[in-house]
Amino acid sequence: MSTPGVDGLGEVVRVLRQWQYDGAPMQLHPGDLGWHWRFGAETTARAVRTWSRDGTILALGLLDGPGLVRLAISPGAGHDEELARQMVADVTQPERGVLPQGAVCVEARCDGVFRELLLANGWDLDEPWTPLRRDLAKPVEDCGVPIKAIGPEQAHVRVGVQRAAFDRSTFTDERWHAMATGSPYAEARCLVAYDDHGVAVAGATVWSAGPGRPGLLEPMGVHREHRGHGYGTAITVAAAAALRDMGSSSAIVCTESSNAGAVATYRSAGFQQLSDVRDLRRRSG
């Protein structure tokens, strides 16, 4: 296991893009790193862990908070027992520098030895999440409301919608600009939906993993004063259209299963609801 420096993030993003394919488990996506980049390149680098053998990266982790690591495992490496045992040792022993002592969570949605070992060692299944997917082989319908792609000069508009959509949002203009400097944002777009009076009512950011690969919608939110008018569905349809324009084969998103409103919004935007997935939680220890 190692932690890349800032100069190693480009390779991490490149590898993660290669692991995205239709039908893959809903794992860490380059867009997840791109969204984390709002805290700066150095902070993002410190939050990344890679597991390699003979110079080849086999697994990646993002420390997305003090007690959560989000993982992706290379296609075909899910049943690599040596890799799995090393990863279990690294995520369960605080001195390894991944997760602290006490209650922690591992997002590992790829079936295989790693999950089996954690469950065998007393970890529990956490609350369910719902993945959703929209195929982009066919053109996407018009979303029905004005949509603008946001550049640096309009960053404050995207930030304002985000903060009005999420009560605990810490997004700022400065963080938008930091995010936009990251290599994942070279294949991303920020979108804002407007009402008939030109008021910004919803926002979303979409992340391509390259032509022919699934693109990620993260995050999406509707201004708290403009909910109930279909703007969530509209911005989600627009997000799918933007990903198709960038060559994505599909649009994917994952939300808490308990958030019935979000699940309904994505379904109304043409996304297919897939089987729930569960992270793994250690209650104490």
Portion in beta strands: 25-35%
Q: What does the overall shape look like?
A: globular
Oligomeric description of these chains: single chain
CATH homologous superfamily (4th level) name of the largest domain: Gcn5-related N-acetyltransferase (GNAT)
N-to-C order of helices and strands: HHHEEEHEHEEHHEEEHEHEE
Structural class of the secondary structure composition?
alpha+beta
Distance between the termini: 22 Å
**How many alpha or pi helices?**
9
Largest sheet, in brief, is: 12 strands, mixed
What is the number of strand segments? 12
Supply the CATH architecture of the largest domain: 3-Layer(aba) Sandwich
Which CATH C-level class of the largest domain is it? Alpha Beta
User: What is the CA-atom radius of gyration, in angstroms?
Assistant: 19 Å
What would the average pLDDT be, to the nearest integer?
97
